[in-house]
Design a protein that fits this description.
The protein is about 75% helix and about 5% strand. By secondary structure, it is mainly alpha-helical. The chain folds into two domains: about 5-125, no CATH class; about 135-189. Strand 1 (about 5-10) and strand 2 (about 15-20) form a beta hairpin. Helix 1 packs antiparallel against helix 2 and helix 3 (about 125-165) packs antiparallel against helix 4. Residues about 1-10 have low confidence and may be disordered.
Length: about 190
């Protein structure tokens, strides 16, 4: 679990500062690996292009003119296409699950516990989703137990009302009072 420290900032406001930078090795490792692979592919493409140019252009003067222009073009192309694409794919695996968690929280606020979060195979936050689903299961079982308890209380009160209505004589009154006391005790639990 990451440790946060509350320290005053120069403006006087408290701020949380992270002491531990690697809080989830698996998730952070995947993200770093994806960026590393993207950069490595870019460097490989540049090296491959330079090797191709050197072998296909006989004169060194032509090579000296062509390589810088092509290298700059490849690096710009890489920076404008590959890096944003890798960033989009990686962020989608983070943003999608976070969107699901936010929408699920809205459903919980509305009182709906009868659903579960399902993530795709390569999405991040699967452990968080599993814990969230466990929480939903607990809330759902508590809600079901509370609903059953209330329904039973209503039935008990209806029975008391019927006893009081149908038997106004002394013999039915103690049973009705006992049932009222039991129902009140059940509602207190």
């Amino acid at each position: 679990m990451p440790e946060n420290n509350t320290e005053p900032t120069p403006g006087g406001h408290a701020q949380y500062r992270r002491r531990i930078w690697v809080v989830d090795k698996k998730t952070q490792g995947k993200y770093i690996l994806q960026l590393f692979v993207a950069v490595a592919i870019g460097l490989f493409c540049v090296a491959l292009t330079m090797t191709y140019l050197k072998t296909h252009y006989a004169t060194e003067e032509l090579f000296i003119v062509a390589v810088p222009r092509l290298t700059i073009g490849l690096m710009l192309g890489f920076a404008l296409i590959v890096v944003p694409l890798v960033g989009l794919l990686a962020s989608h695996r983070i943003a999608g699950p976070m969107y699901r968690v936010r929408e699920s929280m809205k459903r919980i606020i509305a009182g709906d516990y009868h659903f579960r979060i399902h993530l795709r195979k390569h999405d991040y936050f699967k452990e968080t989703a599993n814990i969230f689903n466990d929480m939903l299961e607990t809330l759902e079982s508590r809600d079901t137990a509370e609903t059953q308890r209330r329904e039973q209380a209503v039935l008990d009160l209806e029975q008391v009302t019927a006893l009081l209505t149908n038997s106004l004589d002394e013999s039915g009154l103690p049973d009705a009072l006992r049932l009222i006391e039991e129902t009140v005790e059940n509602l207190k639990k």
